[in-house]
Specification:
mainly alpha
């Protein structure tokens, strides 16, 4: 089954997790557990796996704030923030706009 068969991507979590894996930001147990979350959902994890996922994935990468405005970056924007230097979409857009003027 594909990743969207088990995970509702309305909040951007699946996209974010896929980006972490494809960008090789995760390895070892964190990578394997993240693949499981994408394929089977958070509810499929054991308590120990949930602990590792929270500690090594969500706490490390999921609690990002914008490097420009310091507001929390919404989950739906976190994957993009990994690629654009750590900014929320609004700040990234404004920086790009300034560059092009």
């Amino acid at each position: 089954m594909g990743h969207n068969d088990h995970m509702d991507d309305n909040d951007g979590l699946a996209e974010f997790l896929i980006e972490l894996l494809e960008g090789e930001h995760l390895d070892g147990a964190a990578a394997g557990i993240t693949r499981r979350v994408i394929d089977r959902g958070l509810e499929s994890l054991t308590d120990k796996q949930k602990f590792v996922f929270e500690r090594d994935v969500m706490t490390t990468f999921g609690n990002a704030t914008c490097d420009a405005c310091e507001n929390e970056i919404p989950m739906s924007e976190k994957a993009h923030a990994l690629q654009n230097g750590g900014m929320c979409n609004y700040c990234w857009h404004m920086m790009e706009k300034l560059k092009n003027e």
